[in-house]
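FORM 12-B: Structure-to-Sequence Request
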């Protein structure tokens, strides 16, 4: 059993038109799509404004430049090209946040890029360079527990935030079930809440979890985020 500790609740947002404002109030941190898989100047500005109004932390949510595939498919690009795209996306969000007096405090890669950083080690250092160059050495990195990238971030003095998913199904080996397979998405709020508390208290595959994610594009996202937040708070583990 992992020592009990507090966790935050993060929500991926800025991806769809007319996202419910309540999601911004329920989240501890919002991960804002910044042009790679979704998002533009108007959507980023709306997301930042809502986060500022709610007092919610802001993170960049960059991806492979793949709007057609919503960033959820691997793209065969050189590490330098991926890093350049990530830097452009983070810079765009940073500039919009600055105009509203806000700071982008973290980066959470999206979709296929999130997973490829554990499978393609050649991507890690260029991406960390892009983060430090655009957002500074104080920016935290959000990623899966046990990722090889965590050690590289630590050697550079970057804070690593290990993430679990409240609304995604896990395989017995601790990996996420591929989207499109049975059980990959958890749409029932009570089921998501139970999983969130379990991850907060026991971690995943013997590793601590620092933050729980709810995807803004999951059906019932508001109800799920509300149930997860209430369950974490009731269990005394919500930061």
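FORM 12-B RESPONSE
SEQUENCE OUT:
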């Amino acid at each position: 059993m992992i020592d009990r500790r507090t966790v935050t609740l993060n929500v991926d947002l800025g991806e769809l038109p007319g996202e419910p404002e309540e999601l911004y109030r329920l989240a501890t941190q919002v991960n804002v799509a910044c042009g790679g898989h979704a998002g533009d100047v108007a959507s980023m500005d709306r997301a930042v404004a809502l986060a500022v109004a709610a007092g919610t932390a802001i993170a960049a949510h960059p991806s492979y430049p793949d709007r057609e595939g919503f960033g959820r498919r691997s793209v065969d690009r050189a590490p330098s090209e991926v890093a350049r795209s990530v830097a452009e996306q983070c810079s765009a969000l940073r500039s919009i946040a600055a105009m509203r007096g806000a700071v982008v405090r973290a980066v959470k890669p999206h979709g296929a890029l999130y997973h490829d950083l554990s499978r393609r080690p050649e991507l890690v250092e260029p991406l960390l360079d892009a983060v430090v160059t655009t957002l500074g050495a104080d920016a935290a990195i959000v990623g899966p527990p046990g990722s090889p990238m965590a050690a590289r971030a630590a050697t550079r003095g970057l804070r690593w935030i290990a993430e679990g998913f409240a609304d995604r199904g896990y395989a017995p080996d601790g990996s996420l079930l591929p989207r499109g397979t049975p059980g990959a998405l958890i749409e029932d709020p009570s089921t998501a809440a139970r999983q969130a508390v379990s991850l907060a208290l026991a971690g995943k595959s013997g590793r601590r979890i620092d933050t729980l994610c709810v995807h803004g594009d999951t059906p019932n996202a508001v109800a799920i985020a509300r149930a997860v937040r209430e369950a974490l708070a009731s269990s005394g583990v919500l930061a």
